[in-house]
Write a structure and sequence with these properties.
The protein is α/β, with parallel strands linked by helices. It is 37% helix and 20% strand.
């Protein structure tokens, strides 16, 4: 049984295989359920980041030369260790993020699957032999790009760091990672799991602190060869600009504003039921959260009524209490930003079908919200709400629905529900998204490529493409005969 009364934990940086407090002072880690301080997080000073870089640079040749089956064995062990700490990680995510404890094991399982998937896929890294002239052997070899700088967000405190560490390490790269300062303990446990699994010192380095200083130091270092970032569009633009100045390749997984096309032949009640958990999981603070429900006018009333009913039935409260469906938002700034978008939409003419309230008392709680009758002037139609808000719009014909789905600068995830093969194919061909799921919401598993188009970024994580950003191609031409 999960001990919800267990204390928080000590926090540290991880540099060169050692746990250290660093020399950049400390910052508080807040419990979003209460607004109280959980603990103090040591921060890296510039010299600490430089030590992490030097550690990664020194460790890279040996890790890159480690036989792939040995790398695979370490990552498989790490997956098993992560699974064994599922209760601990679930409790930490409840404390740091406000994720209900009952939902924590699913994220831990995804993290373990990332380690396993990338381990197995590493066995398939190969090159090719290219026909050459007599006595010439041409090969194209895929080799690790080098030490990697990684940045992960607070809304996936276990799965997101696991995905990036697993990909880099399986490819033969090592990593300096800066997880989110809001959720450090969850990421620290992953580093402990990798260390216990036998990862060599320097192959994983983890720092926290001032994001601007850390990113500038990492990107500006000659030792760091590529950048992978998951986060907001503005920060992604900034990092891409800095990486471009230093000619560093990037994988950028940025924001989303996911449309859901619900065609006339779909069951409106069944689709509404299926949409509740994906929409309000993590209080809607997920980049692929379904947000803009574009529903055929013939079934819109039934869909909306059921969505409102299910939203109002959600239990919002302490994430450490059994039965809680939705916890708080991460901090007051995020809650207030969502509330401002909802208020502006209502002032512009939208109908507040349910929710739209900040809950009184401690913590950063916001009620599950459904908006309908949205005018074009509602900013929430084009600005990512990143919160527990569902927007219901209507359409008459499929071309109009597809145009509405494409009417933002985002292009990460999209969803559709239809029993028509013709509708499904039209949506698949014309909706602008890196990830499209039809008749379900499970489109982000480790075996499929994950990433966006337009302002949602570029590059892919997961799937057979998972190593594209972590490997480079070396062309070798070898004359085998006499010179």
């Amino acid at each position: 049984m999960l001990d919800t009364r267990a204390p928080y934990r000590d926090l540290s940086l991880f540099i060169g295989g050692d746990w250290t407090e660093g020399s950049g002072g400390t910052m508080p880690v807040e419990n979003p359920s209460t607004g109280e301080t959980l603990g103090m997080l040591p921060c890296a000073a510039p010299e600490d980041v430089q030590r992490a870089i030097a550690s990664a640079e020194a460790a890279f040749p040996d890790w890159a030369a480690t036989p792939v089956r040995k790398r695979v064995a370490i990552l498989r062990r790490a997956a098993d260790i992560v699974r064994g700490r599922a209760e601990e990680l679930s409790r930490l995510m409840a404390l740091e993020l406000g994720k209900p404890v009952a939902q924590g094991p699913a994220e831990v399982a995804r993290a373990a699957e990332h380690f396993e998937w990338h381990a197995e896929q590493a066995l398939r890294i190969g090159g090719e032999v290219i026909p050459g002239g007599p006595g010439i052997l041409n090969t194209a070899r895929r080799v690790p790009v080098g030490p990697v700088a990684a940045f992960t967000p607070w809304n996936g405190p276990v799965a997101s760091p696991a995905r990036k560490m697993a990909a880099a390490l399986a490819a033969g790269c090592n990593i300096v990672i800066k997880p989110a300062e809001e959720t450090p303990a969850s990421a620290i446990v992953l580093a402990e799991c990798l260390a216990e699994a036998g990862i060599p010192a320097g192959s994983v380095n983890m720092v926290f602190g001032d994001p601007a200083m850390i990113s500038a130091t990492l990107i500006g270092s000659r030792a760091i060869r590529m950048l992978t970032f998951t986060g907001s569009v503005p920060v992604g633009r900034h990092l891409a600009t800095e990486a471009g100045r230093h000619l560093k390749p990037c994988i950028l997984e940025l924001g989303g504003h996911s449309p859901v096309i619900v065609c006339a032949d779909a069951d409106p009640v069944a689709v509404a039921d299926a949409s509740i958990l994906p929409k309000f999981r993590n209080s809607g603070q997920i980049c692929i959260s379904p947000t803009r429900f574009i529903v055929h006018e013939s079934i819109a009333d039934a869909f909306t009524a059921r969505l409102v009913e299910k939203a109002e039935a959600l239990k919002v409260g302490d994430p450490l209490v059994d039965g809680t469906d939705m916890g708080p938002m991460i901090h007051a700034r995020r809650r207030d930003a969502v509330d401002a978008l909802v208020r502006q939409a209502v002032e512009a003419g939208a109908t507040l079908a349910t929710g739209g309230k900040t809950l009184p008392g401690k913590g950063y709680y916001y009620t599950p919200t459904v908006l309908t009758d949205l005018p074009d002037t509602a900013r929430i139609l084009t600005e990512e709400p990143f919160g527990p808000v569902a927007l219901v719009q209507t359409f008459r014909d499929l071309p109009r629905a597809i145009a509405m789905a494409n009417a933002t600068d985002y292009g990460l995830a999209a969803y559709a529900f239809t029993e028509s093969a013709a509708n499904a194919e039209a949506i698949a061909e014309r909706v602008e998204a890196g990830i499209l799921s039809i008749n379900h919401y499970s489109g982000a598993s480790p075996e499929v490529p994950f990433g966006g188009v337009k302002d949602s970024g570029y590059g892919r994580e997961g799937g057979a493409q998972c190593f594209d950003g972590y490997l480079t191609t070396k062309s070798v031409s070898h004359r085998t005969g006499p010179v």
